[in-house]
Amino acid sequence: MTLDSRWLEPVRAPLRIVLRVLFIEKGVPRFAKQQAAWLLLASLLFTPSAFAAYAIAQYGQPKYPPDFKHFDYVNPDAPKGGTLVLANPGRATSFDKFNPFTLRGNAAPGIDVLFESLTTGSSDEVASAYGLLADDINIAADGLSTTFHINPHAHFSNGDPVTADDVKYSFDTLKSPKAAPQFAAYFGEIARAVVVDPGTIRFEFKQRDRELPLLAGSMPVFSRKWGVKPDGSRVSFDQLAFEKPIGSGPYLIEQYDNGRNITYKRDPNYWGAKLPVRVGMFNFDRIQYKLYGDPTARLEAFKAGEYDALVEYVARSWVRRDVGKKFDDGELIKREFVQHNGTGMQGFILNQRRPLFQDVRVRQALDLALDFQWLNRQLFYNQYKRIDSFFVNTDWQAKGLPSPGELKLLDPYRAQLEPSVFGLPPVQPNTDPPGSLRANLLKARELLAQAGWTYRDGALRNAKGEPFEFEILDDSGSAQSFEPVIAPYIRNLQKLGITVRMRVADFAVYQKRLDAFDFDVTTLRYPDTQVPGSDMIDRFGSKAASEPGSGNLIGLKSPAVDAILRALVGAQTLEQLTDATHALDRVLMHGYYVVPQWYSATHRVAFKRGLAWPKTLPLYYGAEGWIVSMWWFAPPQSVQASAPQPAQTQASH
């Protein structure tokens, strides 16, 4: 980095005074001019107002030095070429827009390859950010602002340079009502974006928060011209559908068909290919997605050779269905890849907006009715572990008794919290001997009776005689895999006198109902969390509970949780962040807002022979994104050497 005018901005005013003393004012004693000269030198050398960097870390220092050439987990010599064909990466079976930042509709899969951000994280660190669109990062000494200088070589797909005005436009748009509400929550503690000059943008924060510089850098950037018509009029951002985005990413949309297929081609003028954070990445000339109507059709299409790689999320399918002649012949290969992601929570979400679920004893009873050990034996081939934390598989999981730092956060709300919060974390029910489902259901019946629910007239009823009944909402894209799970859970609940209906909806209808919080119970997996931060506000904050489309599907409104969240996002040390996250985990787990399901620490991938990947695996990664960004087609002579042996069917995801 070189010293430039951005270093002088905080001391411009005192410098003007000093320079006036040195060169303009007459009659000033010589010793005063000498003192002024020393002041000028000190201002330049020792000003504490900011530091500039190629990378930043939330805690500690970035792993990679300023002169690094590429990340350790990529192959810098990976050959370029070929077309990677993939199926639906999620549950959506069609798309009706290119804009991934709005609430309405389903965005095309893979559309994120069109957009870059000011910084990018590495996949072997939990909280570092390296310059991407930005080539220089200045964090103010008071922690209340961060300034990014934009790489002068960065340009959009239409050839326009990326400017500070574009960054500000992206920020203001994403925080506006025209974007999905989670962006306003995610960037909620960033007060404003200020254009310093055409190549410099400053983000100002509402409070000192070590995560905020990383959040500001992670914001996707798009051109102000996206949505502008030839006549100069503009399509409203929330109405953008098939207007092609103007981004600065490595790919462009080449063609699409009826919301079921889309092909991206590598931008021949992609500006960032030689950046250290992009070397060895995005090796395919084209990436094509084919969307199938249901899991069976998708699997059969893979076996027929219609696409190249399948990430398998269903244990039974991995063992029983992802088999056949092509697997036996080595044309299709199965492999499990270890990952260290924070697995997060997956489970039956109990909507607190429904009066039925507002008593913690009722929610605990529903947890007792899930026989995980039976499911693991009968359906999952003993491949899973029971989730017992919202931060499982990480150091953020609460263990043992609360620390003094945790108690400092919890004690002011002792009267509002369950007494058990101040003890050990809850242990999930177990039916392995000497435990049993019968013992768990007897305990559940006792809890339900304490909450006013007793069995009479053929059903579990409250004092008004109303039966205990609810609906589990699922989408058609996952019904085949979850129906065998939901059915035995329903049978167990029926033994308590509870009536449960399973409702399967098309994904678009399902998503619309989730956005409107129009459900009793649903199955959901929260995204992985390596370092808890502002995303927790969207998931568990009281304000988010009233915002349609937010991540707070639980409907949780708790002053105690809100206070813990404020401490979490405002943590200045790793110890403070750990205490806040542990406290949050205790409150959530003892609240029984979710009936936890299961997790594994591997990614299961089946793929065509000929695909290859770097020798060093990332630590924290999603399988689909890893394949798209870091795999390649190996030359024919090297295929045999790079092809793995079929995986053993052990831990799965």
UniProtKB/TrEMBL annotation:
The chain crosses the membrane at residues 36-57. Signal peptide: none annotated. CDD domains: MbnE-like (cd08497). It holds the Pfam family SBP_bac_5. Keywords: Membrane, Signal, Transmembrane, Transmembrane helix. The keyword Signal applies. Residues 131-544 form the Solute-binding protein family domain. The keyword Ubl conjugation does not apply. InterPro entries: Peptide/Ni-bd, SBP_5, SBP_5_dom. It comes from the Bacteria. PANTHER family: ABC TRANSPORTER PERIPLASMIC BINDING PROTEIN, PERIPLASMIC BINDING COMPONENT OF ABC TRANSPORTER. This is Extracellular solute-binding protein. It comes from Paraburkholderia edwinii.
